[in-house]
Each structure stands twice: as C-alpha cells, then as structure tokens.
C-alpha cells in the first residue's frame, strides 16, 4: 500500500491523460492516489476515477497578489504555502511530477521532506536537478532532442514509476442520468436512419480546439459532412461544448445542410457519456480526444499545426491518426503561416473513415500526396504508431521505429518482434540502406569512444594529457547532435557526465570511466539491433524468392 501524490499543473487535456496512470496505480490494492492541479482544471480532474483526494492551487489568486504593486511578493508566497499546507503535513510514499515543468519541480523540491521518493524533475539542496533512473533521463533529456519521438509520454511515465500499463477498469466517473440520456438519444438517431439500426454508424465530429492552427478548417468540415451524408450507413453528428462560439460555428455549418444535422452539446462530464455511445470520433488535438481515450472510444485524430501526436497522440488500440507526412511537420509552436498549411483534404478524412469501418482492412485508403495515415497498437513499450497508408519517408519511419527498438533493448531488456515486422514492411532496399548508414555512424562513435577512453587512462597517469582527453570527450559528445540512432545513447552519456558531482580528479576520472564502459555496452546493443534487423531482411528476401517460384511455375 502506498500513499501517492501526482502533481499535474498543465491544461485540461493533459490532466485527463493522468487517468491512465491513476488507473494503473489503482490496480495495486491499497494504493491511495491524490492529485494536485490548478483550480481551473479541478472540475476536469474531479471526473477522474480512483482519485482519493483532489488538491488545488488557485493560480489566479497568487498571480493577482504577485502583480499587485500594493502588496509585497511575500503575500503571494504565503498564499501558495497556505494552499500547500494540507499536502505538506502529510507523509507520502511517492510524489510524481507529472507536469515535468519548472513549477512542478520547485513544488516537488519543497515537498521533499514529506516523501520517501520523488519521481520526475526536482532539485536537491544545491539546486542541481535530481533523477532517479534512466527512464527519467530519457524523458527529460533524450526525447526533447529526438526528432520523432519513439515512445508515448504516458508509457514513459509508467516506465519511470516502474509499473505496468493496465487497460482494464473504468477511468472516468460518469453520471448515470447522463449515460441513460446519451444512450437513448443515440439509439433514437440510429432508428431514424434509412438503414437498419444495427448498421448505422454514428460519427461524431469535434469542431474546435483551443488554438486555431490545430482546428480542422470549416470548409473542410462542410465537405466532409457532405461525403458522410452521401453514405447511408454513416451518420455525422456535431459535437460541441456549451459555449456561444461553438454554438455559432455549429449553426453556421448546419445551415448549409438545411438544418438537418444533429448537434450534441455536452459539458465535460456529459461528454464522456456521449462518447461511449458513438462509433467513431473525428477530432483535432483536443481534450475531447483524451476523454475518448479514457472511455475506449475509437478516434480518428486529424493532427494539424504543432500537435505532437507521436508524443501525445490518440491512445487507444485501432485509433487512427491522419497527418501531413512527418518530415514536413513542425511539432513546435512557431510561425503561424507554416503551421496552418496542410495537404489533408476532406476526401482523405473520408477515406480514413471508410478504412476504419471496413472489416478486413485489406484495402488501404488512397490519400493525397504527402499525407499519411497511422494506426495505434500496443507492444511491450506501450502505444506504437504504424503506417497504414499514404506518403512515407522510409528512412524517417525506419529510424523512428528502430529508435523504439533500441529503447526496448537498452532500457527494457528485450526486443519487439512487431517492430521488426513494421520496419521490414518498408522494403529490404530501404532497410539495408538505413542499416549501412547507421553502422557507419556507430563506427564513428566507437572510434571516438575508444579515443576518449585511451586519453582518460593516459590522463590518470599524466595530468598533462588532460587536454587530449577534453578534446576527445568533446568529439564523442558532439554525436548527441546528429540525427542518428546513436543520438540516444550518446545523449544519455552526455547527461550523466554533466551531472557528475565528484570532488576530486580521481573520483571524476573513475565515474567518467564507468560511464564510458556503459556507453560501450549500449553501442554493442545498438549493433545487436541492427544485426537482428539485417537477419530479418535476409529471411524476408528468402520468403519473397520462395513465393515467386510458384508464380513462375504457374506461368
């Protein structure tokens, strides 16, 4: 039994993602999980199941005191300490910084005396960043520099804490009255269609996000709805929040269809009840997507703007993500003109919908140029996004998946056969090209590692050799800036080097030597992954050859 506090001081959508972790933690009998959020997110957090106690920080009140020139900054701090008093006086077995930001880090550091263990970013008394394991280093130092994230944030948090993901059990608190109303309303919609009730598929369309660059353009929505209405089995409904802005958008769209569309207005709690009764949700990157994931509702996510779908995309099996080809994506909020352009069309969304509802999945949808469709499945690391159809950059996709495989090998003590299968699907020529390039990169890193190790040993014997050691170490660390699979182990090495706090030269040298040998071991695991992939290519080529023989015989 553990008394656990999770700190999540992010937006509503991010608060909902905590539901997966809370569900997993609750599977251990006796665990009590409390949650600390900002007051503006507290309503959303109150709908998460298995939360023993909900704590709040009134950010607006503290900011008001801080910015008011009539008051000393001490009043703001005093108010913050007052709001944290109940948490401070308790004894926690674990405090988890789910926010993974500076505010969360300072709060964890402040509460350090109240807990046996802090997971996530926090500081020690010397204001140095403290980490507990390689998964935290991976999350904080590696994933931010890797171009295409190989692991979902939710899964990384599970690994940081050391628990397995649990998919069983309810993750949200719903209102029985809302459940009944939603079931009856959606059943009525099905009955009113020209097809049999069992054949009617309800497709809910979410209209708005908090940022217009992530919105599905209105003209695209209108065209999509027209396409859906022309397919008798598909029933489009508009899903909106109870706000004047969304009501106006929905009414404008409905007017183009002679007000024939069904518009469902739901607040955060009622929304879960609605989603449990629809067959598919079409949504950009919104909190609605995260609620759908918690209710096991299938999602077609239209990933636009800077939406980081590889890190925080739809998190349920068989959900789909439609995106511009990833080499053209900019996952960082920056230039508006760059972010608003998309190659995705209404026909692409419709093709993805038809693919989702197809039973065999044997016919892949035809998409516009530079548009890609992914599906979400789960392996030993968690959610994995695999290409279904569309334009692909084979080298980028192979690199993304093999980075995941490397994480499996180094940090999770195993490999995934599913990943090798996904990679081989890009063709033996592309795979062989990638392997050749990465073996060359690996050789360069190994040479610099051996040079660094040699100069370190010389430096221990003769201090005058320290200059050569520094030069060689710099060359080795520079590989952390290369877009290569070697970036992952070298970045981990660099982070550990920077966190060394030894006082004497001998202690420093010894720790560096240990880390160099750790890196050498990791490099050998990289090579092992590449060789296993090459073995898969050989097997695939043999299979292709054997399959061609009967065809030639028949001809």
- What low-confidence regions span 5 or more consecutive residues with pLDDT below 50? none
Tally of extended strands? 15
Please give the CATH class of the largest domain.
Alpha Beta
Sheet bearing the most strands, described?
8 strands, mixed
Measured between the Cα atoms of the first and last residue, the distance is 69 Å
Task: State the shape.
Answer: globular
Task: Give the name of the CATH superfamily of the largest domain.
Answer: Glycogen Phosphorylase B
Structure, explained:
The chain has 555 residues and is of the alpha/beta class. It folds into 3 domains: 3-161, Glycogen Phosphorylase B (Rossmann fold), CATH 3.40.50; 176-392, Glycogen Phosphorylase B (Rossmann fold, 3-Layer(aba) Sandwich); 429-542, Four Helix Bundle (Hemerythrin (Met), subunit A) (Up-down Bundle). It has 21 helices and 15 strands. It has an 8-stranded mixed β-sheet with strand order 10-9-8-11-12-13-14-15, sandwiched between helices. It has a 5-stranded parallel β-sheet with strand order 3-2-1-4-5, sandwiched between helices. A two-stranded antiparallel sheet has the order 6-7. The chain starts with a strand and ends with a helix.
